[in-house]
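ESCALATION

Customer reports they have been waiting on this structure for their group meeting. Please prioritize. Original submission:
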Amino acid sequence: MKKTFLCLFIFCACFLYSQEGILNIKDKPNDDGSALILSWDTTQIQPANIIIERETPNGEFVKILKSEEITGSYEDGTNIDPKNIYTYRITAYNNIGEIIHISKSKAKTSAQWFDKDKISLLILASLITLAILYYIFSAKSGKELFIRKIGGLESMDESVGRATEMGRPILFIPGTLDLDDMQTIAGLTILRRLAQKAAEYDSKLIVPVCRSMVLSTAKEIVKEAYMKAGRPDAYDPDSVFYLTDDQFGYVAGVDGIIVREKPAANFFLGAFYAESLILAETGFSSGAIQTAGTAMPSQLPFFVVACDFTLIGEELFAASAYLSKDPHQLGSLKGQDFGKAIFVVILTIGIILEISGIHFLKDFLTIH
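Update from on-call: job pushed to the front of the queue and completed.
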């Protein structure tokens, strides 16, 4: 009799043990604590289907998943808060809809400090950051950093000098976008240097704009440049003025200025769209020296064929460091170039390894 009860006890214990772990819940790795991973294994009971529910704050259970799979997993990322503990219930049914198993599991999420799947991105970012800091300190210590010559910027003095000799004005267009575009900011940076040179050479500067924020900024830049050149009395507040926000209305106004004033030097530096060729062709027909720069790939061909000098893409953004020789800007520029060199080397090595059937580098750099 005792042996019978002992066998029955062992059987029940084994049965209960086999029921444990049917629904397992764990925190999703490498996330901000906003998801839980639910996995189930109902091999022992072989149900026809299962339903997984989550308990709401008022104690009710809401269905989040119904499946006919014996094993599987599901990611629950709906309104998950790391501060709360969540209760899940799994219910298994047989072919005739009877409940053959029901159990609950609890879990809590946690936010991770680091996403280990992005460690390669951290390493690359750290290398570029260290390179930028190194070049900044090198520039501050007096070390001369090599930056290749940019023809459009080197010719600026020549263009201003030519306008002075001919007694004709200089036209500067800072693009057609507002101050929230980096190309506009880069163009206005060059305007600072150009306005200072115009003040030194006593040349007339014309800056028509099509955005109110650009108008205010350009006025202050030109005024400050004249003060820096020691000629605040020569500053003309009307040299920077507003035309219109309309794209082709603005182009028509600028073309009219080119035809009437016949500037000796035109600068188109900023963001441009379909108006680029109209501006460049009108300026070309007037016989002016033209310098253009934009990061709009579709507009670069028009500037290249119609202008004397063209700043292509990142040359426009490098102009600030190139002209000012500021250690912080020079260091940042060189550090970014170092980062590009790293990417080229990694890309070359990766191609060679992939051709050789070695996938280590690709797997390491892949961000999930």
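Sent to customer with the following note: The longest helix spans residues 327-355.
Escalation resolved.
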